[in-house]
Amino acid sequence: MDFSLEIFTTYLFQERFLVAAGVTLAVATAAQAIGVVIGLVLALFALSRFRVLRAITAGYIWIWRGTPPLVQLLLLYFGLPQIGIRIGVLEAGLIGLGCYAGAFMAEIFRAGIQSVSPDQMQAARAMGFSRLGAIRYVVLPQAFRIILPPFGNEFASMMRTTSLLSVISFEELLRVTRIAINETYHVIELYSVAAVYYLLMYSLWLIVQTQLERLAQRGMVARRSEATTTAVLSAAD
């Protein structure tokens, strides 16, 4: 069967595909936000002096990075009801994808924080900052430039990973595509429509990520220039 350009263009601008793409982007954003919060907390645990907190982080990362996200979603949505815990499809999706993202973000945050010179932490503590205050106001702003590129890659991956939610009947882009295929039997045209939407979302995010990286780089250059100027003025005095 030949590729039908008419079917492709008709469904490309169909409202339900536009809505499904918006839902996919919203779910990816929410899940990634959950992952950022979890990842930051786990990164702080990993850098803690307490062995128990470091063990919690190691165990969490081992479980969530060592098992496929599809298995995690199936356990949450179909497995939990067997022990009396029932959650909706959206809740299962956000929890599953958010916790999965958190395991990766924990390593990204940890590496970013450790990339900042320990002297920065010592200087902040000498100025009266608490450990958490020093991380928040001194270390993290400097680590942001290091964290941003892998974070961008994780979010780009998350937009594609949301397609797994179709397995638990959540109506994101891939689920809507499959429903349309069952109605029309135009497989290649409708999967091509889905591919175009995924590529469009990915391309838009690349533009946003590039701009964020440029802003972060400018901010770093500005801070370095300010620090150099301060040092020169101090030496002159």
CATH topology: MetI-like fold
CATH architecture level-2 label:
Orthogonal Bundle
**Using only CA atoms, what is the Rg?**
23 Å
Order of helices and strands: HHHHHHHHH
Tell me the distance between the termini: 82 Å
Q: Look at the structure and give the mean pLDDT.
A: 88
Work out the strand percent. under 5%
Helix proportion:
over 70%
Q: How many strands, which pairing sense, and closed or not: the largest β-sheet?
A: none
Instruction: Briefly note the structural class of the backbone.
Output: mainly alpha
- Write down the domain tally: 1
The strand count comes to: 0
Instruction: Report the CATH superfamily.
Output: MetI-like
Q: Just give the CATH class.
A: Mainly Alpha
Q: Per the principal axes of the C-alpha atoms, what is the gross shape?
A: flat
Weakly predicted, low-confidence segments: 224-237
Alpha plus pi helix count:
9
In short:
It is built from 9 helices and no strands. With 237 residues, it is mainly alpha-helical.
Search tags:
single chain; 237 residues; mainly alpha; MetI-like fold; 9 helices; 83% helix; disordered C terminus
Task: Give a written overview of the molecule.
The longest helix is centred in the last third of the chain and has 50 residues, at 187-236. With 237 residues, the protein is an all-alpha fold. The chain has helices spanning 5-12, 15-46, 51-66, 69-79, 89-115, 118-126, 131-161, 173-184, 187-236. The protein contains 9 helices and no strands. The chain has one domain: MetI-like (MetI-like fold), CATH 1.10.3720.10.
